[in-house]
Amino acid sequence: MPKTYGQAIAAEALMKIPSPAGLLACALVLVLPCRLAVSDEPVTVFAAASLADALESAGRLFSEKTGRTVRFSFASSSTLARQISAGAPADIFISANEAWMNELAARNFIDSEFRISPTGNDLVLIAPTNSSLKAAPIDASLDITRLLGDGRLAIGDPAHVPAGIYARQALKTLNLWPAVEKRLAPTGNVRAALSLVERGEVPLGIVYGTDAKLSRRVMILGAFPEGSHPPIIYPFAIVKSHARPSVVLFFAFLTGPQGRAVFDNFGFPRHPTVDGR
């Protein structure tokens, strides 16, 4: 039986997902063409706020090519994980760190056959574009107190927001945490931290590199060394009992060549491993 465009995408992309996920997914998209053809229930994706632009672009491309609708809910990974555990109707969860994905997996909310960590990010120090501050190496010699002046440092809340957790670890590694611990402007997600810097409400912020590069209202002062914090990894997974054909199709699209091209376009580095389990 001839494959639709969407089925062809899935068959090709899913072969890259480690067995048995690839085999199971290929079976779904190849032997259930009728169900795929009539299924028009939207796919609902809960994803880390830092992925908003890239995922919306991928969703539009997928919809144009397959006619299927994708809906997104963006927030901090912790907020989304808690919503899923409370029964929110997410089909796919994309976290900004492994910890929140592992939390859901441990409680049997994640389909272990459909989990992969294909992309990552980096961490940067930013200032408003009209700031007089200059680029500088981010290391233990950084005089962050001087750079802050009388202001505060915007970061995702280090108690639960992945970007803030990474930032706290990096600052601790470089022995800069004592100087800023009581001078934080913690936010509910990384985009909110970016917004504080964009509006000039704080002189400095720590965000993901992809967020900073998308904004015309901030400048990057420097990047935190990779060894100063755990690798920034985005695990993707289908929520338990939600692996219906349209969800598998979009998951395959996101983790396959065309989805990868979208993430490349938005500056997300490829993660060196293919499976975050």
Describe the structure.
The protein is of the alpha/beta class. The chain folds into two domains: 5-120 and 234-265, Periplasmic binding protein-like II (D-Maltodextrin-Binding Protein, domain 2, 3-Layer(aba) Sandwich); 123-223, Periplasmic binding protein-like II (D-Maltodextrin-Binding Protein, domain 2, 3-Layer(aba) Sandwich), CATH 3.40.190. Helices cover 42% and strands 22% of the residues. The protein has 13 helices and ten strands. The chain has helices at 5-14, 21-31, 33-38, 52-66, 77-85, 98-106, 144-148, 162-173, 177-180, 190-198, 209-214, 245-255, 257-265; strands spanning 43-48, 70-75, 92-94, 110-121, 123-128, 153-156, 184-187, 204-208, 218-223, 232-239. The strands form two sheets. The protein has a five-stranded mixed beta sheet with strand order 2-1-3-10-4, sandwiched between helices. A five-stranded mixed beta sheet has the order 7-6-8-5-9, sandwiched between helices. Strand 1 (43-48), helix 4 and strand 2 form a beta-alpha-beta unit. Helix 4 packs antiparallel against helix 13 (257-265) and helix 5 (77-85) packs parallel to helix 6 (98-106). The longest helix is centred in the first third of the chain and has 15 residues, at 52-66. It is elongated. The two termini are 35 Å apart. The model is unreliable at 1-21 and 23-38 (pLDDT under 50).
